[in-house]
Specification:
- By secondary structure, this protein is of the alpha/beta class.
- The protein has one domain.
- The protein contains nine helices and ten strands.
- Strands 1, 3, 4, 6, 7, 8, 9 and 10 form an eight-stranded mixed sheet that branches.
Length: 244
């Protein structure tokens, strides 16, 4: 089966109807970092909270200042917003397409580390690159989850749609495929996020289970320019033939 590695988003949707539940990986493996985060968020120390969130005004921090263990939860793939998730448009997908994403997408959260799309998470806020107390999330999760991820993915094909920053959380040693998007011969940033979301949506809509099926699939607005193989990495380079 195909597993898709994906980035989180700074933006989150409020609400949720689920309670705290099981997450990908070993039980209690996240306790140290989650407890550290929760202590800061519920401490009332505005300076520390604003620094962690990367926010300047405490009123803007209010939506995230809840106990993460008792706050409402929703599936991670539904919780995130932002460019990629706007183009994914999860709410518009069928139930079977949503189930595909919940089971086959691995999102690399700045707080929760690697989680499946269906794993329940609350509203939270961690500015990318910030420590949580004294803990650097990327180092914490790379040390504790790389072996588990290797085991989980060893019989799977891997499509890595993450932004490069999240290589710090996990770098697979087995074969994997990435995508690169060019506009007029130049690499793009904003549209890369949009097309990652569109690709993820197309994977779900077509119930893609292998890289061969993915390579045979047409994606609106994209045309394959070249395919480069370096060691265990296959990079498919797309030309953007029309903006979204």
């Amino acid at each position: 089966m195909l597993k898709i590695l994906f980035s989180p988003s700074e933006g989150k949707k409020a609400g949720g109807s689920l309670q705290k539940g099981e997450l990908f990986g070993a039980l209690n493996a996240r306790d140290e970092i989650l407890n550290s985060y929760n202590e800061i968020v519920t401490s009332g120390d505005e300076e520390q909270i604003l620094q962690l969130f990367g926010i300047k005004k405490i009123k803007d921090a209010q939506p995230y200042m809840e106990n993460i263990f008792t706050a409402p939860h929703m599936p991670a793939i539904e919780r995130y917003s932002g460019v990629a998730y706007d183009y994914l448009a999860y709410e518009q997908l069928t139930e079977s397409e949503q189930t595909y994403l919940q089971k086959n997408t691995l999102i690399f959260s700045n707080l929760y580390g690697p989680i499946l799309g269906g794993d329940p998470i609350p509203m939270y806020k961690v500015k990318q690159g910030n420590k949580i107390g004294t803990i650097a999330p990327e180092k914490f999760y790379k040390e504790r989850f790389s072996y588990q991820l290797d085991l989980f993915l060893q019989q799977e094909e891997i499509l890595d749609l993450r932004a490069g920053y999240y290589d710090k959380f996990y770098k697979t040693t087995q074969p994997y495929t990435t995508l690169k998007f060019l506009k007029d011969g130049k690499s793009v940033s904003h549209w890369a996020k949009a097309y990652r979301g569109s690709v993820l949506r197309a994977l779900a809509e077509n119930n893609i289970s292998s890289l061969d099926e993915f390579r045979a699939m047409e994606i609106e607005g994209l045309q394959v320019k070249e395919i480069q193989v370096i060691k265990n990495k296959t990079e498919i380079v797309f030309d953007i033939i029309n903006n979204k």
